[in-house]
């Protein structure tokens, strides 16, 4: 009796064939090409290498025993080695012996003793902002995190009547541009460094700030300007403050070198304290990387200070509540170790005095290198003027060397610095200062 179509469909051989086809389909799907990426070159172009990190990598690859690294933005001792501050070693020992030390979360705002000490350090213990409770602060991921938190806050809540624009000095720390653009704030530059005098282009700076749209955000380096080493005088700071007040601009201070620049904490904090005394509303990004040598511990603080008014405490309370939400959504809780080290030192009279001595050691060695470099270049009658080497301050110096001379120094003498001629004075020491001076002399003469 012939099988019906239905019987044929349900026969063992038919079921086997169906299973085989299904299995073949599955295998084929596994062997088929994967769908193309959602992140092709048009969507995610290759980013350029960070110039400074590229320079560091090139230095490490160089096998010449006389090579000199003047690119790194970190302090080095006279043997070109990282220097752990003696006071940091003492604080570290105290922490290690503390039986109550644990690894629990810090509060969202950070370590309270560290925050209050940071406020006093940057503003002065007798600051009117502290007495009038016009300040709120959060511990951050070093100065970079503080700048970012401030930029994010301004992006969300600062709404002047004109188009929002951030003004940076020309030049400035390159990361400023990226941080503010990441939160949607457009930027422009104001003249700062004069290539002719190798000092401050004060008239250009003032003119630019006067012409900027009312209510612009102006980012200012509190001391030891990065990358030029050129700072305004106190009288010039007063004029800058006057223009910012007249134009109703919002000042944003970035301070990474307090005490490290001159060895005097109050002197290096003068500009910020002056602005606060004048009643400005402002933000401050504070870093402990350089002045404590806590580069990898990422200890920093962000401060918001409002102007004196009857509702100042209410303003600070509202701002603090929003900053806490921003902090919570980004890092939740800041890292503890570096803040604990700094807090121990800042809150202990004996340790604080030792820290000040350590600061004088670092800043003093850099000042000595400035004097030695200028002296050697002038002794060799190297073409050009070199007085700016000692007139600039802090870790960095804009030498005035051209890109051609910088590349010649690298090729001929294995000296590494950024293409704009910026050097880290901390990379110079008594063992390489003469070698470097002679190399500069040769490069300058060879490119004339």
TrEMBL record:
It catalyses: L-aspartate + 2-oxoglutarate = oxaloacetate + L-glutamate. Residues 1-16 have a biased composition (Low complexity). Residues 1-29 are annotated as: Disordered. GO terms for biological process: aspartate biosynthetic process. It holds the Pfam family Aminotran_1_2. Its EC number is 2.6.1.1. Keywords: Aminotransferase, Pyridoxal phosphate, Transferase. Residues 66-439 form the Aminotransferase class I/classII large domain. In eukaryotes there are cytoplasmic, mitochondrial and chloroplastic isozymes. This is Aspartate aminotransferase. It comes from Melanomma pulvis-pyrius CBS 109.77.
């Amino acid at each position: 009796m012939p099988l019906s179509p239905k019987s044929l469909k349900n026969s063992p051989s038919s079921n086997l064939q169906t299973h085989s086809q299904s299995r073949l389909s599955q295998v084929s799907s596994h062997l088929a090409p994967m769908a193309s990426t959602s992140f092709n070159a048009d969507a995610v172009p290759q980013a350029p290498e960070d110039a400074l990190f590229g320079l560091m990598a090139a230095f490490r690859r160089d096998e010449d025993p006389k090579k000199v690294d003047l690119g790194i933005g970190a302090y080095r001792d006279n043997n070109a080695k990282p220097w752990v501050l003696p006071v940091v070693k003492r604080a570290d020992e105290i922490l290690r012996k503390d039986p109550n030390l644990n690894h629990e979360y810090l509060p969202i705002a950070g370590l309270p003793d560290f925050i209050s000490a940071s406020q006093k350090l940057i503003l002065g213990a007798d600051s009117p902002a502290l007495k009038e409770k016009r300040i709120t602060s959060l511990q951050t991921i070093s100065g970079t995190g503080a700048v970012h938190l401030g930029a994010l806050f301004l992006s969300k809540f600062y709404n002047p009547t004109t188009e929002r624009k951030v003004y940076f000095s020309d030049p400035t720390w390159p990361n400023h541009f990226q941080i503010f653009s990441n939160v949607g704030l457009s930027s422009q530059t104001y003249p700062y460094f004069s290539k002719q005098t190798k000092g401050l282009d004060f008239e250009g700076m003032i003119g630019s700030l006067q012409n900027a749209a009312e209510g612009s955000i102006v980012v200012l380096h509190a001391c030891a300007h990065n990358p030029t080493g050129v700072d305004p005088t106190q009288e010039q700071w007063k004029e800058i403050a006057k223009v910012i007040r007249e134009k109703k601009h919002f000042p944003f201070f970035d301070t990474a070198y307090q005490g490290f620049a001159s060895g005097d904490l109050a002197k290096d904090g003068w500009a910020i304290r002056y602005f606060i005394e004048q009643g400005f509303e402002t933000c401050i990004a504070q870093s402990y990387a350089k002045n404590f040598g806590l580069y990898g511990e990422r200890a920093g603080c962000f401060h918001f200070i409002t102007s004196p008014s009857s509702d100042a405490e209410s303003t600070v309370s509202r701002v603090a509540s929003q900053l806490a939400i921003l902090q919570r959504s980004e890092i939740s809780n800041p890292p503890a170790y570096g803040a604990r080290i700094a807090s121990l030192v800042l809150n202990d009279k004996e340790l604080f005095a030792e820290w000040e001595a350590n600061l004088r050691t670092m800043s003093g060695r850099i000042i000595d290198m400035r004097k030695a470099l200028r002296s050697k270049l002038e002794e060799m009658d190297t073409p050009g003027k070199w007085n700016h080497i000692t007139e600039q301050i802090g870790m960095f110096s804009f030498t005035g060397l051209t890109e051609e001379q910088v590349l010649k120094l690298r090729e001929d003498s294995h000296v590494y610095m950024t293409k704009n001629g910026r050097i880290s004075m901390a990379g110079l020491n008594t063992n390489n200062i003469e070698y470097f001076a002679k190399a500069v002399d040769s490069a300058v003469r060879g490119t004339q």
